[in-house]
Design goal:
Length: 90
């Protein structure tokens, strides 16, 4: 099972409920919303997609599980595509 981790070269700055990330190669700045910020915090330690989805489902028990799983997968995929998060083989 694939695990993911923060790109250690990314600079993170927390402001209020969001986090701003700076990608080191391009110097592009990204703002993480509540979902992205939560995932970034979870990724303080390498995590699998399934583990992150479990945490988010537990945090929002009144929301449809499938919708949450889709949102987590999409947010993680975007962070991987932007090289903010890397695959970390277990």
């Amino acid at each position: 099972m694939s695990r993911f981790k923060r790109n250690a070269a990314v600079t993170a700055t927390e402001i209020d409920d969001g986090i701003f990330l700076v990608e080191p190669e391009t110097q592009d700045i990204f703002f993480l919303d509540a979902m992205g910020s939560g995932l970034w915090r979870l990724l303080a330690e390498p995590q699998s997609l399934a583990a992150m989805q479990d945490v988010v489902r537990e945090a929002f028990p009144d929301q449809p599980a499938q919708a949450l799983d889709t949102d987590v997968a999409a947010a993680l995929q975007e962070m991987v595509e932007r090289r903010l998060v890397l695959s970390a083989e277990a």
